[in-house]
């Protein structure tokens, strides 16, 4: 087990030895500090949780993009650099190497999320008052709860998109394709819901893109096409398992002739 | 007979109905420097990729230290250190961090061992620099360092002299012989350069168009170079070759050429004389492997 953690440590070392990783983390800090500051300068009459949620809903997009950048390079990078050969001739099965890489991506996503949440929270709290007790936050429910649920549902979306990027990176061994395709999906997925409206097409409720944004369930007990939260979570889980299986199969079986 | 450390058993590799390696069977005894010789495109790298588990084996199996690369990959590969084609490293990290990376993947490698290997390949004063600042020769040496970290029983090097200057080639050669002598490491080294192989290897296997065409011992177990032939000048080569039918021989420019040690030479002489063939002269000829290699590959081309 400690031996396996060393593999994860290796992947972390490779991620954090690159200056671009630190640039991305610095940008996250800057944006999460800057947004509350802008709201403050603009002089809005808002409470800290509202500011936090508005900041987070914008900056979390960046966290997602940066995680996608890391995930996209994870396997494809080793192939482009040619280092995949020296990595795969060690006494470790390919499955374990792949898992260590995926865990390093998840760790990065958690680091990015924590930086986002902490910085946004610190600056919102410094510059704004807490809401008057008993007042509803704009998200519904009590204000902190709404903000945290929002963060959680954003993370779920990040998780799915990052897995897609990781899969494309493995299957096509191209970092730019992985970034391009997964961000394309991130930005146009809402269109799918409009075109293939589950009210009109029965099968559309099984489309992944309708379920990546679970935040609809914060306000309403039913989601797209009247499905429940559990239905959405199950659809997401099934897709994630399929993506993981594809990634693993391709990576474990592939002839490496880089 | 020493147990072979590496055993290739009927190994074939087929990619989209093209056969890159065909029915390769080969044993490499422990402690040898084995040369895998063949022209470009012969299938050397493909074979090595299968030996280290980078490519699947279409047919047959490869055993390393008795472990199948197909079914017990983790045991088999823990005995192996390798460079496959160019040693690509993480350029954005220092040489030292690169070695830490590989050290973490194998059990029991101490910081002292890393120091030791770095000293061995002569990178001590540059090891903290980023790999992107290294010359090709330095990268090659870092490649050798990562392959040696865990004291592998088998060291596999694919065309290691590519891109090295004569000085570097010489160092590598001396180093490989030293490894095999002092640590008993078995070395499997591929090359298309025949002259290199002659100086480095105990045995060479020659591969051509994916097939093993010959395996030759270049040195006797005592370390003598055994790659010599003896020429007999006789009055009638046809009669002589009939008399000597049981010996492997060839006829070239009116001379009978045979391989083998002194006893065999004496034996052949006796046989010739006893059968009424007149022997005018006996002398040793050193044919370079290159000549033989070209002969072999030349004759292959006709059929
Ligand atoms: N991944 C691959 N797919 C198809 N053909 C390949 C692949 N890799 C190598 N080859 C072909 O296989 C033959 C042997 O290649 P290789 O093993 O690299 O030769 P060598 O290392 O002896 O120069 C060459 O003709 C090469 O073009
Ligand atoms: Mg080659």
UniProtKB/TrEMBL annotation, chain A:
Q: What is the top-level taxon of the source organism?
A: Bacteria
Its protein name is ABC transporter permease subunit
Protein's organism: Paenibacillus lemnae
Show the Pfam families listed in the entry: ABC2_membrane_4
Q: Which UniProt keywords apply?
A: Membrane, Transmembrane, Transmembrane helix
Organism taxonomic ancestry:
Bacteria, Bacillati, Bacillota, Bacilli, Bacillales
Q: Which residues cross the membrane?
A: 21-41, 61-81, 102-128, 148-168, 175-196, 229-251
Automatic annotation (TrEMBL), chain B:
User: Protein biosynthesis: present as a keyword of the record?
Assistant: no
Task: Give yes or no: UniProt keyword ATP-binding.
Answer: yes
SMART domains with a match to the protein in the record: AAA
- List, alphabetically, the InterPro entries matched: AAA+_ATPase, ABC_transporter-like_ATP-bd, ABC_transporter-like_CS, P-loop_NTPase
Tell me which UniProt keywords the record has, alphabetically: ATP-binding, Nucleotide-binding, Transport
Q: Name one Pfam family in it.
A: ABC_tran
Q: Name one GO molecular function term.
A: ATP binding
Q: Where in the numbering of this chain does the ABC transporter domain appear?
A: 6-234
Q: Which family does it belong to?
A: Belongs to the ABC transporter superfamily.
Protein name per its UniProtKB record: ABC transporter ATP-binding protein
């Amino acid at each position: 087990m400690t031996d396996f953690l060393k593999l994860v440590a290796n992947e972390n070392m490779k991620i954090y030895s690159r200056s671009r990783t630190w640039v991305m983390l610095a940008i996250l800090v800057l944006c999460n500090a800057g947004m509350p500051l802008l709201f403050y300068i603009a002089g809005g009459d808002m409470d800290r949780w509202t500011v936090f949620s508005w900041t987070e809903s914008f900056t979390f997009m960046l966290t997602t993009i940066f995680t996608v950048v890391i995930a996209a390079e994870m396997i494809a990078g080793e192939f482009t650099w040619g280092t995949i050969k020296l990595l795969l001739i060690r006494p470790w099965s390919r499955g374990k190497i792949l898992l260590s890489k995926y865990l390093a991506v998840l760790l990065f996503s958690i680091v990015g999320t924590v930086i986002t949440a902490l910085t946004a929270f610190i600056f919102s709290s410094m510059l704004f008052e807490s809401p008057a007790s008993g007042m509803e936050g704009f998200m519904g429910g009590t204000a902190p709860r709404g903000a945290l649920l929002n963060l959680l549902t954003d993370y779920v979306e990040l998780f799915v998109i990052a897995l897609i990027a990781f899969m494309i990176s493995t299957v096509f061994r191209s970092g730019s394709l992985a970034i391009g395709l997964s961000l394309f999906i991130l930005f146009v997925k809402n269109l799918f819901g409009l075109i293939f409206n589950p009210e009109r097409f029965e099968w559309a409720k099984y489309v992944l893109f309708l379920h990546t944004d679970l935040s609809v369930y914060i306000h309403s007990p039913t989601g797209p096409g009247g499905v429940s939260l559990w239905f959405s979570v199950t659809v997401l889980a099934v897709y994630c398992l399929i993506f993981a299986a594809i990634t693993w199969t391709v990576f474990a079986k592939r002839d490496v002739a880089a | 007979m020493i147990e072979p450390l590496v055993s290739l058993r009927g190994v074939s590799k087929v990619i989209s109905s093209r056969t890159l390696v065909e029915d390769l069977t080969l044993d490499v005894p422990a402690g040898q420097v084995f040369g895998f010789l063949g022209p470009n495109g012969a299938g050397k790298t493909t074979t090595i990729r299968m030996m280290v588990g980078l490519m699947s084996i279409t047919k047959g199996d490869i055993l390393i230290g008795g472990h199948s690369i197909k079914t017990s990959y983790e045991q088999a590969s823990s005995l192996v250190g390798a460079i496959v084609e160019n040693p690509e490293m993480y350029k954005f990290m220092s040489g030292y961090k690169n070695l830490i990376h590989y050290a973490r993947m194998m059990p029991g490698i101490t910081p002292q061992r890393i120091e030791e290997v770095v000293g061995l390949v002569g990178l001590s004063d540059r090891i903290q620099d980023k790999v992107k600042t290294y010359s090709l020769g330095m990268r090659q040496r870092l490649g050798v360092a990562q392959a040696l970290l865990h004291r592998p029983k088998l060291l596999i090097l694919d065309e290691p002299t590519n891109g090295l200057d004569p000085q570097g080639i010489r160092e590598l050669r001396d180093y490989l012989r030293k490894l095999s002598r002092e640590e008993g490491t078995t070395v499997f080294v591929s090359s298309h350069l025949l002259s290199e192989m002659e100086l480095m290897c105990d045995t060479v296997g020659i591969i051509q168009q994916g097939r093993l065409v010959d395996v030759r011992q270049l040195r006797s177990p005592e370390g003598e170079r055994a790659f010599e032939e003896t020429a007999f000048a006789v009055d009638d080569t046809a009669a002589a070759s009939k008399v000597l039918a049981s010996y492997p021989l060839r006829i070239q420019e009116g001379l009978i050429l045979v391989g083998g040690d002194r006893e065999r030479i004496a034996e052949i002489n006796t046989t010739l004389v006893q059968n009424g063939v007149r022997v005018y002269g006996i002398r040793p000829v050193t044919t370079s492997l290159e000549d033989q290699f070209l002969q072999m590959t030349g004759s292959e081309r006709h059929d």
